[in-house]
């Protein structure tokens, strides 16, 4: 099966690091494709819509060359895009893995913890790119962040800088997203981190309770679960691969 990987707010495929290669090595019978959201990465010059549905429509166009049916793996806001896609195009999407994502099924203070909102706002106002990227890493990861990783993220941002306009459009899209009531006709799996300091894991639980999808919870990883606990994520992924 072809799997499409989607990152979250202001992030792009360069922020996956080694995770796509690990997926390919662990599951050689599948193909994994990293797609960027409009306004980021390879689609940096595309304006970002301010709704999840609008972003999803762009991503569908980007993925037109990938044979279906496909599986979608989405992290954070990428999970919202993946979920909206599964509901809009059930004939094309067969499997869905959502990591530390949220929706209008949860209250705002769980979708973004108040302390995280303050930190994120402070980082957004920083003009020093190095300080901003280091701050994002420290907020999204609960593990020691090595210099090599910091350098890589800094290079990504300098080569393909996300504009403030894109960031604001994505934030509006994420804040206003609410899935349709009907359950997507897919095999769904929810992965969450109890140690996530941005999104409360109860947001994933709300989605699981709504559609009776299995929920797996890591005890202490941060919001960027594939970065903090890649082996754990790969083991959970085995149940849908």
Your description of this structure?
The N and C termini lie close together (8 Å). The chain contains eleven helices and six strands. It has 241 residues and is an alpha/beta fold. α5 runs antiparallel to α6 (129-140) and α6 (129-140) packs across α7. It has a single domain (2-237), classed as 3-Layer(aba) Sandwich (Rossmann fold), CATH 3.40.50.1820. It has a six-stranded parallel beta sheet with strand order 2-1-3-4-5-6, with helices on both faces. It is globular and about 45 Å long. The chain has helices at residues 19-26, 52-62, 77-88, 108-111, 114-125, 129-140, 147-159, 164-176, 202-211, 225-228, 230-237, and strands at 2-6, 31-35, 70-75, 93-99, 187-193, 215-218.
Give a quick set of tags describing it.
241 residues, alpha/beta, Rossmann fold, six-stranded parallel beta sheet, 6 strands
């Amino acid at each position: 099966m072809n799997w499409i990987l989607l990152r979250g707010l202001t992030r792009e495929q360069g922020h996956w690091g080694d995770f796509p290669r690990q997926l390919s090595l662990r599951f050689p019978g599948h193909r994994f494709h990293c797609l960027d959201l409009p306004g980021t990465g390879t689609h940096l010059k595309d304006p970002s819509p301010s709704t999840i549905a609008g972003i999803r429509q762009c991503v569908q166009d980007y993925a037109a060359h990938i044979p279906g049916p496909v599986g979608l793996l989405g992290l954070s806001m990428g999970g919202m895009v993946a979920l909206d896609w599964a509901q809009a195009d059930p004939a094309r999407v067969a499997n869905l893995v959502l990591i530390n994502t949220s929706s209008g099924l949860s209250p705002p203070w769980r979708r973004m913890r108040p302390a995280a909102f303050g930190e994120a706002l402070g980082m957004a106002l920083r003009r020093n790119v190095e300080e901003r990227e280091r701050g994002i890493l420290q907020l999204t990861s609960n593990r020691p962040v090595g210099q090599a990783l910091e350098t890589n993220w800094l290079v990504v941002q300098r080569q393909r800088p996300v504009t403030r306009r894109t960031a604001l459009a994505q934030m509006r899209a994420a804040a206003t997203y609410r899935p349709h009531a009907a359950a997507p006709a897919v095999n769904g799996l929810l992965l969450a981190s109890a140690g996530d300091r941005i999104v409360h894991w109860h947001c994933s639980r709300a989605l699981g309770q709504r559609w009776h999808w299995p929920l797996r919870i890591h005890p202490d990883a941060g919001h960027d679960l594939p970065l903090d606990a890649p082996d754990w994520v790969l083991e959970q992924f085995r149940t849908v691969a």
